[in-house]
Write a structure and sequence with these properties.
The chain is of the alpha/beta class. The strands form six sheets. The protein has a seven-stranded parallel beta sheet, sandwiched between helices. Strands 5-2-1-4-3-6 form a six-stranded mixed beta sheet. The protein has a six-stranded parallel beta sheet with strand order 14-24-23-15-22-21, with helices on both faces. The model has no long low-confidence stretch (mean pLDDT 92).
Length: 636
């Protein structure tokens, strides 16, 4: 009988767990094991003869469980397993949790049908690990990739391009596969289980060099001939996972690429501030000089909403005229809005209190229903409340709805252009990707027409548009996030590049320096201002931030938060209420640590990086109910 150490591929697991089996087994095999009340897969990382462990087994406080099945050799390479261990160290997690998070469930469900990866060939002694920053517009990057693919294929090498969304994978596949269709494999979550298995096996067994285009959740796929790993659209927020363990998939790609000794390219039209800082510090090389200005063939027009004081409209007079011009020439118009719903904020005119959700501290958003009535909706917990509500603070009836969302803009455009086809894309009006794609397809197939949309619509708009209107972005400047300027800069230039004739923005903040840089496409000016501000406030990349989030009853989390503060006192913790301090009747507080980058890093990320082991022990000792985020997307 064998005593077996197994890393379970499941959430809520820490160190390898111990099982037994009478069958022949060795490290590297994948097994099916009982865990809690379910059965999961796991990786064997060690075996011992039970005869040598009799005393230990007898003294154990729990009974060993038997391995259910041995599925065979691992499809995961040793480099991937070692990388998962490093990823777990960095993100204060476990290898099993990491693998469970970044590998699609279908891979575990269909494990027996998958081919085992080829054994690693002999490493090239002269291979030099290099990392590059590649900041060019999309057309230039596509041209570069076509040349790179031809060159690498001629050398017998494969290429892996990671993209943040399914839409991006499909677009790049269409652009890069011409002439090499047989050797291009797109891997993403919309594939059926059967098709996913077929494509995976072809990727693994194909003798010719291949181009793999995939979302980050297929980064575990490896062939010995992959010499180049590209992280495309690296500024996308879609690289963050939305559930535990909280991971930045760009960092995972870099760790795995380094472990596999691949050349790594970080590419985008506008790279993140952190990535540009790494380039400035010479951590990242460049293929070509970085492009610091984004060109646009369209005219940029700023409509000053402060100037139109006679009668306010969501769509100003000048904006309305420009939309009319576009429609007369049968051009398509996209109107971007920041918020969904009718009105994002409602105030009491008597006491000035903001109307908020009874379960959350989130502001209630005014929506219209299919029947034409109006209702308040909480976008956090989905609670609904009659629009005839009174102020809960003073009992007053004089409630005033402020700001405007996509539904308000849609309604005003319907009044202005009753004969024009107008559609809307946001989370309320396009609840599935298929619904959003259909709306965009209908919009792009017609001459003329108006599409109103939030950020959700941008990933589906692939064709140039005659006119793009930004209804207003002023409310974004009120969000207390250290990344908000970067988000606005990216959004404006993404929209500018999609416009053919006119890019128009309505604002009351036309003299803001960041807006000036964004509207002229001046990346260098924006970067210099932003990096200066972040250094002064010790925001990334000046520091590595670790954020702890406590959620529960107010008295309980205050007590627990104080204990954590005391435990982490050598690291100068900062405790504060979350931006939305209550969700579903649970209060939320954050504790953040600002560390030097080298004090919480890995050699695969920074040449002198290391993990503070004392801090790591303290963080791992904290209750599992506390969410830990390393390099969080925001501090809200």
């Amino acid at each position: 009988m064998k005593i077996v150490e197994v890393i379970p591929f499941a959430k809520g697991t820490g160190e390898p767990m111990t099982y037994f089996t009478a069958q022949e087994i060795s490290s590297g095999m994948v097994v099916s094991i009982p865990l809690r009340k379910s059965e999961v897969l796991g990786l064997v990382v060690g075996t011992r003869d039970a005869r040598d462990e009799k005393g230990t087994v007898r003294a154990s406080s729990y009974a060993l469980k038997k391995i259910k099945k041995i599925l065979g050799p691992s499809i995961f390479t040793q480099e991937f397993i070692e990388g998962a261990k490093e990823i777990a160290r960095f993100f204060v997690s476990s290898p099993g949790e990491v693998i469970n998070q970044i590998v699609p469930k279908t891979i575990f469900e269909k494990y027996k049908e998958l081919s085992v990866a080829k054994a690693e060939g002999k490493k090239e002694a002269e291979f030099k690990l290099e990392k590059f920053a590649f900041q060019r517009e999309l057309d230039e990057r596509l041209t570069f990739y076509k040349t790179l693919i031809r060159t690498e294929f001629a050398r017998g090498n494969s290429i892996f391009i990671v993209l943040p969304t399914i839409e991006a994978v499909l677009f790049f596949a269409e652009e890069l596969s011409r002439g090499i269709e047989r050797y291009v494999y797109s891997m993403h979550g919309e594939l059926s289980k059967k098709e996913l298995v077929v494509r995976y096996n072809k990727v693994i067994l194909e003798s010719h060099s291949v181009l793999i285009l995939s979302t980050p959740y297929f980064i575990f796929i490896h062939r010995p001939d992959i010499r180049t790993l590209v992280v495309e659209q690296e500024s996308s927020g879609a690289y963050y996972t939305q559930s535990r363990p909280y991971l930045d998939l760009r960092i995972i790609a870099e760790i795995l690429g380094t472990t596999r000794r691949q050349k790594i390219i970080f590419a985008d039209t506008i790279l993140r501030v952190e990535t540009l800082a790494r380039h400035e510090e010479r951590e990242l090389l460049e293929f070509y000089p970085l492009k610091w200005r984004i060109e646009s063939n369209s005219t940029t027009l700023i409509v000053n909403q402060r100037a139109d004081t006679q009668e306010f409209h969501l769509i100003g007079k000048e904006t309305k005229k420009e939309i009319e011009k576009a429609l007369l020439s049968q051009g398509r118009v996209f109107v971007y809005t920041v918020r969904r719903g009718l009105r994002p904020i409602t105030l009491c005119n008597d006491c000035g209190t903001t109307l908020t959700c009874a379960n959350c501290s989130s502001p209630l958003v005014l929506h219209s229903t299919e029947g034409g009535t109006r209702t308040f909706v909480c976008h956090k917990c989905k609670m609904r409340r009659s629009a005839d509500s009174k102020c809960e603070h003073c009992g007053g009836w004089r409630l005033v709805a402020l700001g405007y969302g996509s539904e308000s803009v849609y309604g005003e455009l319907k009044n202005f252009f009753p004969e024009t086809a107008i559609s809307i894309i946001d989370k309320d009006n396009a609840k599935t990707p298929q619904e959003a794609k259909k709306k965009v397809k209908d919009f792009e197939s017609k001459k003329g027409g108006i599409l109103v949309g939030t950020e959700l619509a941008l990933q589906y708009l692939t064709k140039p548009l005659n006119t793009i209107v930004v209804g207003s972005i002023d409310s974004l400047f009120n969000i207390p996030s250290f990344r908000i300027n970067e988000k606005i800069f990216h959004m404006i230039n993404t929209l500018r590049q999609k416009s053919e004739r006119l890019f128009l923005i309505q604002t009351r903040l036309k003299d803001t320096r960041m807006l000036e840089s964004a509207l002229s496409g001046n990346i260098l000016s924006f970067y210099r201002e932003e990096i200066k501000e972040r250094k002064g406030l010790r925001y990334p990349p000046e520091s590595r931030i670790i954020k702890l989030t406590l959620e529960g009853k107010k008295a309980v989390i205050e007590k627990e938060g104080s204990a954590i503060e005391q435990s982490l006192s050598p690291y100068a913790p900062e405790k504060f209420s979350a931006f939305i301090s209550k969700i579903k009747n649970l209060y939320r507080i954050h504790i953040i640590l600002r560390l030097p980058r080298a004090a919480w890093s890995l050699p695969s990320l920074l040449h002198n990086g290391s993990i503070d082991e004392e801090l790591s022990k303290k963080l791992r000792a904290i209750s599992p109910s506390v969410a830990v985020r390393v390099d969080p997307q925001d501090l809200l």
